[in-house]
Amino acid sequence: MSRGDLTDAQWERLEAVLPPIPKMGRPPRDRRQVFDGIWWRARTGSPWRDLPERYGPWETAYAVFRRWQIDETWARVLKKLQVKADEDGIIEWEVSVDSTVCRAHQHAAGARKRGLTIRAGRVRTASRPSRNDHGLGRSRGGLTTKIHLAVDASFHVLAAVITAGQRGDAPAFEQVMARIRVPRISGGRPRTRPGHVLADRAYSSRQIRTYLRKRGIAHTIPEKRDQAGHRLRRGSAGGRPPGFDREMYKRRHKVECRIGLLKQARGVATRYDKLAVRYESTVQLTLIRQAL
């Protein structure tokens, strides 16, 4: 067994939430070996062709990774682990929201993009539109991708959204909150509403505070200095300052710690996947592996 491979106990927990093996067609390879190979690639950030021989052909590992991304198996497995954690009472519904920027490797920039492309000295329109230009954006450091996370008080990632690196945090807030959806084994509507939300100044806006207030979600978000100054200049018309509990705000460090743990996988810390959906699956795979 190589460093980073699944133990017997971890494989038993993972096998319980994997989709059943199809009865028709050619029998698949050892799924434990294939999963370890896929995880090795995400952990090291190496190209698929450099997969060690002990994990079998690299084409098999990539085919499984791609197929499970297309049929959303990675997302379903991660959801099942969240359901089990919630059923065991592990998930605490105090949610911290934040984002992190990941540098994109030059190998991630080769996919076709929406808009204008240049070929043979001519400008033409790309024939195949892509999803949000594959989540790649231009920042000072070059091509980057941003991961928006919602993390509960027990370090479980309840939602993850991939955007271009230059995208702001506040515009993606409602999309992140909409991704929080944990079904209940006992039946009934899925749990979608946290008990409390913590976020930094990047999320201080009237729209976000109104959104949380309408959903009945308590929140701790510090006010920006310019917003406070503008409110004071308006006098009584500026209204009262938003409530802020400094001691409660200190608990937001858990999302920062979870981001650091997520970036221990080099395939996440540096993006090597050309497509945003592939990179999102790499993030989901890492969350699955760390939850076992």
From TrEMBL:
<feature type="region of interest" description="Disordered">
    <location>
        <begin position="226"/>
        <end position="246"/>
    </location>
</feature>
<dbReference type="InterPro" id="IPR052909">
    <property type="entry name" value="Transposase_6_like"/>
</dbReference>
<dbReference type="InterPro" id="IPR025161">
    <property type="entry name" value="IS402-like_dom"/>
</dbReference>
<feature type="domain" description="Transposase IS4-like">
    <location>
        <begin position="95"/>
        <end position="276"/>
    </location>
</feature>
<dbReference type="Pfam" id="PF01609">
    <property type="entry name" value="DDE_Tnp_1"/>
</dbReference>
<dbReference type="InterPro" id="IPR002559">
    <property type="entry name" value="Transposase_11"/>
</dbReference>
<dbReference type="Pfam" id="PF13340">
    <property type="entry name" value="DUF4096"/>
</dbReference>
<protein>
    <submittedName>
        <fullName>IS5 family transposase</fullName>
    </submittedName>
</protein>
<feature type="domain" description="Insertion element IS402-like">
    <location>
        <begin position="6"/>
        <end position="77"/>
    </location>
</feature>
